[in-house]
Each structure stands twice: as C-alpha cells, then as structure tokens.
Amino acid sequence: MPRTFIIGDVHGCSKTLMALLLDKIQLEEHDNIFFLGDYIDRGPDSKGVINFILQLKGQGYNIHTLRGNHEQLFMDSEKSFNDFQNWIVNGGTATMESFAISGFTDLENEYKKFFNETEFYFEQDGFLFVHAGFDFRSENIFDDKESMLWIRDMRVDKRKAGNKIIVHGHTPTPLEIVQKNLACVNEKGSLNIDTGCVMKSYSGYGYLSALELETMNLYSVRNVD
C-alpha cells in the first residue's frame, strides 16, 4: 500500500535528506512525498537537495513540492538590491556558492522551473500542508500567500480549516517537543514538523523529520551534512 510522507525544512542538507528517504523511510516507488519547502539556504548543498528531488521526479516517484519563504526570498532577490540583501542575510550566500551563481537570474532553466512550479499549499484526505501556516483572521485563508510563507504562532480556526489538520514547518522546534505535540494534534489542529535540521549545533535541534500520514509516526534522522 502506498504511504504518504510529509518532509520538513531541508535547508541545503542533501546527505541528510538522502539518509531520511533512502535509509530511514526506505522510499518505495508508489509512496507519496510532500515537501514543505525551504530546500535551500544556510546548509552546504542546496543544489544537491534540488538535484535529488528532480532525480526522484525523473524516476517516476510521486513528489509534490511546496514553496517556503527561502525560495520566495531567492526568487525575489533579483527585483532590487534590498531584496538581494534580504536574501543574503537569510542564508543566501550558501545557495550562491552551491550553485556557483551570483543570483537567481544565473540559474539554469531547469532550476528556475522547479522554483516557479512550487505550490503554496496542498489538501490531502483530512489534512492541509503548508510551509508556515495560515492567518485565520483572513476572510479566506487560501488567499493570503504571505502568511503561508511567513506566519508564526498560528491560531487555528478549525471551522475555516474545514476540520483538516494542518501540517507545516518554518519554525524550528526541538524534536522532543514535536514528538510530544503528536499526542495532541487532533485537539490542537496543527503540527509543526520543522525540527531544525540545519541547526545541528543547538541542543534538541539538528534533525530532519518526516510524518507518515497513515500511521502518524514521525521519522527523524540526525544531520549528517
């Protein structure tokens, strides 16, 4: 039976992503993989992360990619000097070095296509997947793309969410806390699975995590990049 996995923020840690999917999860061809965004910046191998995802797609795996705030920063960086500087201070230098470029315009078309085709949210069997969350003060939460990329401290309105559980990333959270939150996910209505993969020097962080929807089991691996 196909499994469905939701993957948290990778941030340029390609070896860790491979360890999670190939060794820990042991990905199978008919599994469904949803990435929550933030593939790039800060970590050592943003290009390797994108290449691995593109490789899986090319091999016929069911891969779905959301956009994170770091992808948006990268895409917006060509608009002005201030936008470029904003990306740089958020970890963009590591991405430039990984791709051997000086900006988004230097990317090969294959990579530009990847970033431009990322989605802002997905719906799947009683769940909503989004990078950061939704602003439930909005009349229509699906119109507010800025919040989907950036919001923190989300307050879930289950009615507006259609009683779907929201799975998101964006805000690094210690692995132990994420595991505890799993026990009350139905009551809270959301689960953050960003376990701070790139923050391996900080206690409790430095893990890349995947949630299996069918079992609600959390699979995590320590950063090996």
CATH architecture: 4-Layer Sandwich
CATH superfamily placement: Metallo-dependent phosphatases
Q: Helix count, per DSSP?
A: 8
Highest CATH level, the class:
Alpha Beta
Strand content: 15-25%
CATH topology type: Purple Acid Phosphatase, chain A, domain 2
Q: Which runs of at least 5 residues are low in confidence (pLDDT < 50)?
A: none
String of helices and strands: EHEHEHHHEEHEHHEEE
- The chain-level mean pLDDT equals 96
Description:
This protein has about 220 residues and is of the alpha/beta class. The chain has a single domain, classed as Purple Acid Phosphatase, chain A, domain 2 (4-Layer Sandwich). It contains eight helices and nine strands. The strands form two sheets. It has a five-stranded mixed sheet with strand order 3-2-1-8-9, sandwiched between helices. Strands 4-5-6-7 form a four-stranded mixed sheet. The two termini are about 30 Å apart.
Descriptors:
225 residues; single chain; Purple Acid Phosphatase, chain A, domain 2; four-stranded mixed sheet; alpha/beta
